[in-house]
Amino acid sequence: VRKNSALALEQELRYSAHLSLPAVVIPLRGNNNTSLAKHLLHFAIALMNFNQCMQFWIEVPLMAPKPLHTSEYIQHDDNRLTEEDKRELDSGMEADDDTPSWLSDIRIFTQKHKMIGVKLTVPK
Fold it and tell me: How far is the C-alpha of 41 from the C-alpha of 37, rounded, in Å?
């Protein structure tokens, strides 16, 4: 699951760069964002090496969403996932009301890169 997610993220970011989009908004839905931050940092550095400019805006909610479980967002292909995949998916969706720590973690892991910014979302 992790490899497929990383490949999908890279494919989406490459397509966004191909379209010369000025910015991409990436929402956070949980507190486990280390891998996301690592991939964003590597992609931002690669873009700078090719003299391309694209901003990444990390969307951080002011209030944490309710926790999700695999049964809530995977409906059809549930039988193709192993138990380990399901545990990995559920572990990233734990309840954590401390959304400023999400932002802090992202900023630490992306080394406060100038192409990676923040977009705060106010709940309705």
Answer: 6
Quick check: 5 and 79 in contact, CB under 8 A? Answer: no
pLDDT in tens, 45-87: 998 888 888 899 999 888 876 654 445 545 545 566 677 766 6
pLDDT single digits (tens) 91-116: 554 545 678 888 888 888 888 888 99
Among residues 78, 2, 68, the alpha carbon closest in space to that of 30 is found at 68
Q: Tokens 């900023």 map to which residue?
A: 107
Q: What angle do CA 9, 52, 100 make, to 5 degrees?
A: 50
Name the pTM for this structure: 0.67
